[in-house]
Amino acid sequence: MSKAIKFLVAPDKFRGSLSASQAAHAIKMGILAVLKDAQVTEFSLTDGGDGFVDTIAHAKDGAKIIRLKTIDPTGQTLTAKCALIDDDTALVGLTEASGINLISEGERNPAKLTNLGTGQILAKLVERGYKTIIVGVGGSATNDGGVGLLIPLGFRFLDKNGKPIIPNGEGLADLDKIEVPEGKISAKFVVATDVESPLLGKYGAAMQYARQKGASDEEVAKLEANMKRLAHVSEKCLGKSMHDAPGAGSAGGCGYALINFLGAKRISGFDIFAKYTNLEDHVKNSDVVITGEGKFDEQSANGKGPYSLAKMAMKHKKPVWIFCGSSEVPEADLEGKMKLNGVSVGEIMPLAPNIVEAKNRAPKFLTQLVKRFIAEKL
């Protein structure tokens, strides 16, 4: 090949096996093993979930990371990161204090875990005078409708006896009244979501996502009922409930809390990532765009970063390779249901003897996929 091929490598995490940065490195190693003179630009793609704070802070000149003492979803003390983008703007990632990544398999139950830790961070940033607070709400361990975010800001969620409810998804069963803070909250909020789901229903916070966080079918049904109760009490006490807003169902209803109670503007987490990394310029300057995630399915088209990057690359007529652990999208549906033209999908699972090996040796298999694609497509 006469000229060096330019690759843009920007995968999301492969949950349970690779962080986004580890996946990017494995892909880069595969490229350079075959094409020694290739030019590789790599990013850890984030759409509001894992890596949101680190990635945006590192991409934005002048941003800095600070650490604040708070609690994790079980109530244990931890120190969580957030980013100061400029003198007026702070950025918070839910995964830093409320993420499922913080919880062992045995502790996972979105009905019993809390978002109070992230709420404490928001309260501290408001107290410090930040005018805009951007909250990335992917990857939560919880399903509490976001009440844990609001309580440290002065909201009160009370039972029929006027006592505070337990601040988790299970506790919402007792909710009867919501009281708003006496003073106006000075900060404006922006919610960066990785999905466009509503709060309720088949595609909502509980029914679509709670099982992934450790809930049983019975708990999912209870959580859905509790989300409906939260929406009903909000309507009764505040005169509104924006449970159908796009993104309201993200992160167990944290999107709902920010949009409905704090008037947050909703933006795609991918759009924030793209803005601060000048991603579209990198797409324009590339010959091949590579992205990926652990599981590629129809949900990926619901605001997920790899899908959004593929659509951006399509706009500029760039070939796209999507690598994943496994795909549930038949090849015929790529152009049909998914509306992805010029996109090729590669899976780790067919290369591995079993799922355990696929996860344990994910970098090796990902590198193999890269080599195969280069041989077949370039």
Can you describe what's shown?
The chain is of the alpha/beta class and 378 residues long. It folds into two domains: 134 residues, Rossmann fold (3-Layer(aba) Sandwich); 219 residues, Glycerate kinase, domain 2. It contains 14 helices and 13 strands. The chain has a six-stranded mixed sheet with strand order 3-4-5-6-9-10, with helices on both faces.
CATH fold call of the largest domain: Glycerate kinase, domain 2
Q: Any idea what the CATH superfamily of the largest domain is called?
A: Glycerate kinase, domain 2
What overall geometry do the principal axes of the alpha carbons give? globular
Radius of gyration: 21 Å
Series of secondary-structure elements, N-terminal to C-terminal: EHEHEEEHHEHEEEHHHEHHEHEHEHH
Total helix count? 14
The low-confidence runs, each spanning 5 or more residues with pLDDT under 50, are none
Summarize the biggest pleated sheet: 6 strands, mixed
- Give average pLDDT, whole number: 93
Q: CATH class of the largest domain, anyone?
A: Alpha Beta
Q: In the residues, how many domains can be counted?
A: 2
CATH-derived architecture of the largest domain: Alpha-Beta Complex
Looking at how many chains there are and whether they match, the oligomeric state comes to single chain
Separation, N- and C-terminal Cα atoms: 9 Å
Strand order of the largest sheet: 3-4-5-6-9-10
Provide the β-strand percentage band. 15-25%
Estimate percent helicity: 25-40%
Per DSSP E runs of 2 or more residues, the count of β-strands stands at 13
**Secondary-structure-derived class:** alpha/beta
